[in-house]
Write a structure and sequence with these properties.
Immunoglobulin-like; binds 2-acetamido-2-deoxy-beta-D-glucopyranose; elongated; alpha+beta; 5-stranded mixed β-sheet
């Protein structure tokens, strides 16, 4: 009996407060899984004259919706409801005080990997990222590794001290510490759950051997060694040639000798 009394008293208080509040009737009350919608609000018991109205989405005024008429019934057309269009829509009537009502526009969950193909070096850290879109945002995220035989293996934050998962409603990041070529290469799946369902995407992770990461460097080193060797060999080969050149120049004094002879001859002729 006591409980019934308390309940009816509460109900009276609720009714009393409800009757003093202006009442906005929204139609529909909520939009879910639709490609287009017509939202409407009907202010049935304004507490003061209506000076105007406008619509908001996620607490930002929607451009071009502000009216300065005293209409108590306003509409908003949503032509293309994609993942970005979801959110909390609010009709606002400019009265004293302002009154408003929310219509939630729910869109299917969409999950997209930041990159569908990632790569990391052996022993480094591998990082994979997935984003979630839609309204409402995911309430849960999970990561799985698709094993070579196709069966998924659930990855938890502390599995093997090897994984680190950081999650916000619209983003999840999986870090793999100390990448191993054999164990960690392969396909990963990020999965999000919202009240409207489940969505997922896949990422392929390639792990390069440390040596492979060194290849460009080793290539440069090899090039330098080859170049130095070539120059060295060339120089070595050149040296004997230069010696023979010196021989040639050594023969030059012979020539000059001969000219000397000629001069001598000339002188001799002159003296003759
Ligand atoms: C708004 O609500 C009032 C009161 O319930 C009703 O008479 C009126 O027809 C409604 N207007 C529209 C456009 O639905
Ligand atoms: C995973 O562990 C890290 C570090 O301990 C923590 O910051 C993070 O919130 C955890 N993530 C989840 C999803 O539990
Ligand atoms: C993630 O969600 C928050 C709040 O829901 C929002 O403010 C933010 O812009 C979102 N970030 C991205 C990258 O979508």
């Amino acid at each position: 009996m006591k409980i019934l009394f308390v309940l009816s008293a509460l109900l009276c208080v609720y009714r009393a407060s409800a009757s003093t509040e202006p009442l906005i009737v929204t139609d529909p009350a909520e939009v879910s899984n639709r490609t287009s919608a017509l939202l409407s609000c009907n202010l049935t018991a304004p507490t003061s004259p209506i000076k105007g109205s406008f619509w908001m989405k996620n607490d930002l005024e929607l451009d071009g919706t502000r009216k300065s008429t005293n209409q108590a019934y306003i509409e908003l057309t949503l032509n293309k409801i994609n993942a970005q269009a979801g959110g909390q829509y609010k009709c606002v009537f400019v009265t004293e005080p302002e009154v408003s009502e929310v219509i939630e526009v729910k869109t299917p969950l969409h999950v997209s990997a930041y990159k569908h193909s990632e790569q990391g070096n052996e022993r480094d850290r591998g990082v994979m990222v997935c984003h979630g879109y839609g309204y409402p945002l995911p309430t849960d995220w999970a990561w799985r590794k698709i094993q070579p035989d196709g069966t998924p293996f659930a990855i938890a934050n502390a599995t093997l001290d090897k994984y680190e998962i950081k999650t916000t409603p619209n983003k999840t990041t999986l870090s793999i510490l100390d990448l191993d070529m054999e164990q960690d290469m392969g396909d990963y799946e990020c999965m999000a759950t919202s009240e409207l369902g489940v969505a997922s995407d896949k990422i392929h992770l390639r792990v390069r051997s440390r040596l492979a990461a060194l290849w460009p460097f080793l290539g440069i080193v090899a090039e330098v060694i080859i170049l130095v060797t070539i120059i060295f060999i060339y120089e070595k080969r050149r040296t004997p040639d230069e010696i023979s050149d010196d021989d040639d120049s050594g023969s030059a004094p012979l020539k000059s000798n001969s000219t000397n002879h000629k001069e001598k001859n000339v002188r001799q002729r002159n003296s003759n």
